[in-house]
Write a structure and sequence with these properties.
With about 200 residues, the chain is of the alpha/beta class. It has helices spanning about 35-45, 55-65, 75-85, 90-100, 115-130, 140-150, 150-155, 165-175, and strands spanning about 5-10, 30, 135-140, 160-165, 195-200.
Amino acid sequence: MQDKYAVCFPDCNRLSGSTPDNLKAESILLCDHLSELEAAIGAIFGKAADRADDEAVAVLKKILSPSFKLFNTLEAEMQRYSSSAERVLTEEQQRILDETAYDKRKIYLGAAGTGKTYIAMEKVRRLVKEEKRVLLTCFNRRLGDKMRKDLAGEIETGLLTATNFHDLLMNILVERGQGWPCRRRRRPGAAFSKWSCRSGW
């Protein structure tokens, strides 16, 4: 299928000089063509206007409705977190952490990059300093690996278990003889003083 195109200069009424090889003179629309735009467009496409509708629609969608995606990879999010690991808590983040000392059950919602993981890990550090047993879990396995790496010191105390939620459940099932053989991670422990679940929406 041969694609054709046109250019329009609504404020001009004369054309002079040489046009590019792939742009014919009839494919240049000027202000005089606007009064009979349908006929001008028909002259550009000629018999090609009779081609299959589905094919024509697909071409028009490609030309008039380009699509693209904007997103952050998990690696980029982790790198951004690592680069700001030493940042000072904002006033709101400090307030959130202080509130958790009085209200034991909290649910925090926030877009990517708002600091949910950072707050959860900071809370874990505080609890471990208070010598409380803590379970920190998330749904993403790679993020779970990242949290274990950044909280290695706290894990070494024996007070913190950090793992993704699916591995946590698998370990529990295997220990009770209800799962299937798999790579074993650190034993979650029988009881925890605190637990935290970090997830994103």
